[in-house]
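README: folding subset

This subset contains proteins for which both the sequence and a predicted structure token string are available. Records are stored as plain text. Below is the entry for chrnn (447 residues), shown exactly as it appears on disk.
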Amino acid sequence: MPSNTDKPKIFSIYILLFVANVVNFSGTESSGYDDAQNLHAFLMENYSRILTPRFNQSESVDVILDLFLNSVIEFHPVSGIMTFSAAFIIKWRDEIIESRWRNSGYLDIHVTKIGMHNVWLPKIYIRNIANIASVYQFLSTLDSEMSYVTYKRTGEAIMKCLAVLQTTCKTDVTYYPLDVHTCDITVVTIDAYQGINLQTTDVDIVNDYTYPNSEWTISSVVTTNWEDNFSEVNFAVILSRKPIFIVTNLVFPIMIITVVNGLSFFVPIESGERLSFGTSLLLMLIVFLTTVLEVLPSTDNELSYFNIFVFLELIYSCLIVLGIIITIFLYHRSTTKKVPNILRRITLIVLKRHKTRPIDLETISKLNTPNADSTKMIDLYDQEYDKTYSENQIKAAKDENMTPKVNWRDVSIALDKILRSITTFFTVCLFIIFVVFDVWLRIIYAD
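--- output ---
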């Protein structure tokens, strides 16, 4: 049995337990559905969604805009349009909500949500959007009505917007297929009277949650700008092309065709296939040039180096076909027509340099007989001077009367050797470039 002195202590304990239960019950009651609804009604009473959430309407509202890039869905260098999915997180401080919440008596509620159509929202746009300018995009009316702004007791407002947007980009294909494009996502406020100061805490909008693109390597640069009463935040998405596919299927085939094209003058004229061989390669280059034009922007002011390269290769192939036609024409020209002196001298110099002697008329007539073997002509063109000639015979050959007679077939042979040397030189140079470029790409993209 407790004594009389212990009764006041027991009574005091009962009172403390009762007060604690009352406080606990009131706290639980204040965070219930009815109290949250009453808080909404109290906060929204005479609330204007047109006026800025400042007691002093001359003060600007600092709006923090962060962007999280989910993925670059598609990018067209021809049209310059980038399609991407992203999440915008918009934050600002609402002094009206903060003041009313502090005086509402519902201090145990720390966070609440209010429909976006009932509160003030910063009026911001994407300046270079390709379809819809506003960042507030919704799938349907129901989706819009179910969107809300999250408010904290301190007046901080947070809103999240998910959207698939299209923005216009200025393309630069100078170094195609190693081209790099910068696509800006420029968020601006165009209403100067709202006094919105756009800011951002982002340093890079690409993170571990950004899905990689199979065609482009994605990076970003974030900048802010304030000019007069207008502010903007620019999220620059930098797209670097992954060139392995295009180099393998477009660049290397063109280089291979060019290398093979340089071998046209190694095809014997007697075979009758030299012209068709060169023409076929020329048509293949034209087809590849058409392919290049389809993937490059048609409105760009600067041509890509690759486009210039293909155009030069086309001219090179045309010149080869022209050289083939001229050599065939001279080869089959009538031997009765006299060769000009300058051509005769050039022909003798070229044939002497290549250790080849001109063919006299008797040899030509023999080779033109039905029983003549056409391969003898090739052997005769490439035969070297007989080293057993005596000095007297060499001196006699220098005499004008003993100078070998040059006909149009000799001119054709000399021209053929000159063109063969030129194309061989360019073929070797292009093959070296081909190998070096391939090794360089493998080193860069080895990881």
